[in-house]
């Protein structure tokens, strides 16, 4: 009986400790999401730092790509809903775990167990899809990227689609979604920066404002001049594959930890059920 109580008590301590950590993470995510919408003065500092970091990443590019805090904010706001959603989820989950473990409330722990199991299943499914069955999500990923090329307006464009594509093409050294031909239907096709270009300037490996020949006449057989035939969709997956070992390792560790929490929660519920019916 003593060993059983020890397991139960250790489980409660672990549940409370880790869920306090998740509670803090949820609160921070929730707060960040709210700050983006509220646009408090504190966000100015974050935007300035992020803007400087982005400009530093493209400092070797000779194009007219510009990036202001206002433009960055317009992109960040798109992710505010995600931050708030994730923050609220983690916060509520952690709160359920803490209340259930501290107060030994069976119904709360049961809800916690169900939600945690669903989360584990979702994470495993996501890992399988990303690293094994990615064709399942290809249409939902690729088409939105292709839609973005329709609204591309060049290296100086200020809409969210243009900023995102410029960032991807510079960061991943790619051009378009499949290749440069994706830009043929864009609203500014062939006239970016008032020039007759076959590809955006950012598709050039070493873009030069005084020499745009690589964008006017890209040498498709020479990747040293232009990334015209290297699509960003595949480049993005290549990047994910390169980091797959680390991602799988971290994800697996998180899932195992969550599974341990579920087992402890189940054991506490089991112990409380036995106590209610008069067993020790």
Automatic annotation (TrEMBL):
**Where does it reside?**
Membrane
Q: Which InterPro entries match?
A: Tetraspanin/Peripherin (IPR018499), Tetraspanin_animals (IPR000301), Tetraspanin_EC2_sf (IPR008952)
Predominant cellular place of this UniProt entry's protein: membrane
Which PANTHER family does the annotation name? RE08073P-RELATED, TETRASPANIN
**Organism of this sequence:** Lottia gigantea (Giant owl limpet)
Pfam families attached to this UniProt entry: Tetraspanin
Q: Which UniProt keywords apply?
A: Membrane, Transmembrane, Transmembrane helix
Give me the Gene Ontology terms describing cellular component. Answer: plasma membrane
State whether keyword Membrane applies.
yes
Q: Which family does it belong to?
A: Belongs to the tetraspanin (TM4SF) family.
What's this protein's name?
Tetraspanin
Give the membrane topology: Multi-pass membrane protein
Entry-linked SUPFAM superfamilies: Tetraspanin (SSF48652)
Which sequence ranges are marked TM in the entry? 12-39, 78-102, 109-131, 246-270
């Amino acid at each position: 009986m003593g060993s059983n109580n020890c397991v139960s008590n250790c489980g409660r301590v672990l549940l409370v400790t880790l869920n306090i950590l998740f509670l803090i993470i949820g609160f921070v995510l929730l707060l960040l999401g709210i700050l983006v919408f509220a646009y408090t003065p504190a966000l100015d500092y974050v935007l300035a730092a992020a803007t400087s970091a982005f400009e530093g990443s493209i400092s070797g590019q000779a194009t007219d790509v510009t990036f202001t805090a206002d433009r960055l904010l317009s992109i960040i706001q798109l992710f505010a809903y995600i931050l708030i959603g994730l923050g609220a989820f983690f916060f509520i989950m952690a709160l359920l775990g803490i209340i259930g473990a501290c107060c030994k409330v069976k119904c709360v722990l049961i809800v916690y167990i169900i939600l945690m199991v669903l989360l584990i299943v979702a994470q495993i499914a996501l890992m399988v899809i990303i690293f094994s069955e990615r064709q399942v999500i290809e249409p939902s990923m690729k088409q939105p990227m292709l839609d973005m090329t329709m609204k591309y307006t060049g290296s100086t464009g200020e809409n969210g689609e243009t900023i995102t594509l410029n960032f991807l093409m510079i960061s991943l050294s790619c051009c378009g979604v499949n290749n440069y031909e994706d830009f043929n239907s864009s609203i500014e096709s062939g006239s970016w920066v008032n020039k007759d270009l076959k590809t955006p300037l950012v598709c050039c490996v070493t873009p030069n404002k005084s020499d745009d020949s690589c964008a006017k006449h890209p040498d498709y057989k020479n990747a040293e001049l232009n990334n015209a035939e290297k699509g960003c969709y595949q480049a993005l997956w290549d990047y994910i594959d390169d980091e797959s070992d680390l991602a799988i390792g971290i994800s697996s560790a998180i899932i195992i930890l969550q599974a341990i929490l579920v087992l402890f929660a189940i054991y506490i519920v089991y112990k409380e059920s036995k106590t209610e019916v008069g067993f020790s």
